[in-house]
Write a structure and sequence with these properties.
alpha/beta; 7 strands; three-stranded parallel beta sheet; about 10% helix; about 20% strand; Leucine-rich repeat, LRR (right-handed beta-alpha superhelix); four-stranded parallel beta sheet; globular; about 110 residues
């Protein structure tokens, strides 16, 4: 994972993470934790696009810690479970793409 996502303590600008068709099977939790480890101190990540990346597992609730996130696209993967409520608390979030996964549960009434 660290081979394609450089981790530096002196990151001052990290605005987007784009990943398309990269076969990240079983790596979503690790990927999100690496992203959060980098951007939590600067908190400026605004886009996460990992559609069609063969992601499996649940959408990590830690994504809700990214207070400036504007777009989250996890469409066309193999994600399961529900969309964490923490994601819907991000006031800047304008788009969430979750189509063509195996998600379950209900959406909050306030969205």
């Amino acid at each position: 994972m660290a081979k394609f996502l450089p981790i530096h303590q002196n990151v001052h600008s990290f605005r987007a993470f784009l990943c398309h068709s990269t076969n990240l099977e079983d790596q979503f939790q690790i990927l999100v934790q690496k992203i959060i480890d980098v951007v939590i101190h600067v908190n400026i990540l605004i886009l996460i696009i990992v559609s069609r990346s063969d992601l499996t597992g649940a959408i990590p609730p830690e994504l809700g810690n990214l207070e400036n996130l504007v777009e989250l696209d996890v469409a066309r993967n193999f994600l399961t479970g529900s969309i964490p409520a923490s994601i819907f608390n991000i006031s800047t979030l304008q788009y969430i793409g979750v189509s063509r996964n195996n998600l379950s549960g209900t959406l909050p009434a306030n969205i």
